[in-house]
Amino acid sequence: MSAVSTLASPRDPAVASPVPRAGLVDSLFARRLTVLLLAAFSLLGPLVETVLTDRSHYKEGKTTTNPVVAAIDDLGSALVPAVAAAAVLLVLLFARMSGPSLLLVVLPGLVLAANEFVHGRTPTFGLLLTAAAGALLVSVRVKPEDLVVLGYTGGVVAAASIVAMYAAPAVVTISGGTGTFDKSLTGAPLLAGIFSHSNTFGMFLALSLPCIFLVRRALARWPLLLVVGWALALSSSRTALVGAGAMLAVVVLSRLLPRAGFVAVSVVGAVVALVAVIRIPFTETDPEAFTYRGAIWIYNREALGDHGLFGLGAHWYADNYPVLREVLSSAASHAHNLVLTTLVQGGVIVLLAWLAIVVFALFGAAADPTRSSSVAGIAFVVGLLAIGATETPFPLLGWGPLSASALVPLVVFATRRQLDRERSALEPTGPATRAARRGRWG
Length: 442
Hints:
mainly alpha
């Protein structure tokens, strides 16, 4: 007898708990389309910028954003919240909504928006984009296996960038394909793909790695891993390589250790990475450390001062960018550290809201009975924290080039456990499929 049948009245065994309509809460097409649309929103701007901008004369932080890209950002800033609100309303009308999951993912954006009143500013739609995307993912109930869309996207962008490096290097490499920089690990020009900088390209590739491990067929998975690894090396992004190395270490450990040992070691690794993200920018005193990130950290710490609780405001970097560019560099539009950037823009209250999502993502992945999604989730969290030590992987304001790669998996892994619990309480249990049994720990 199924778990659902035990809820029926003893006098009427035919009565069972109502099962929600599958089309509204568990549509494979809707789930993967949602992931694809959020990825397209992240990548469309950089793609248009690449096609319409002369890379040989492009200077990061100085070249004016193309009007088409600005229009795309404005349209998305209004459209995504509207679609998310409609999706949440539709689910509330016809099915049950996961209240705890919804609150978890919208809280950072709502707190950041409300925090603007403290700084005497009116909140904008851009402040709510992370909350809107999270609400959309929760309402559609995107699952870890749906993240293969991001894995394939990473592979396609990597392959296209490599081809373009030989066919039209001026379009996808820094300095028009002619400059060889000291930071290049291959001796070749730095591959930036469709992004404004090779570091951004490298982080995009690294964040797609865990999603590639969710691809079931080895004939598809291995070519994706190889092409992404190749492009990652050509980017010469040290931050991205460190993050990718941490992710691969998690995958290797999952093959060497029993589940309990793997989970324990991985959680310890995640805690170490989190400590590094917090400690490095607040203890560094050498301005030249970490490729002059030390100077950026010192400046941000001094600017933050005693405003740690509410920060300096979500628009502080934009408002003070001319000064930051003059004092530091064009790369000073954020603090080059996830924790310090969050503190500057939103203070401790926003930081705690984001840390809650990270913690839920880690323990949600650790508790996942399916090996592939558990390993991918833990690898993603550890890698994201490793990258966050010296970069800001996603913006708090707006929806940037890396937002889909960083935030979609984070939200999915953070909410999957609660969504699965609610789904199992509503749906009748049945024998596990052969694919499900094969994917579970054993």
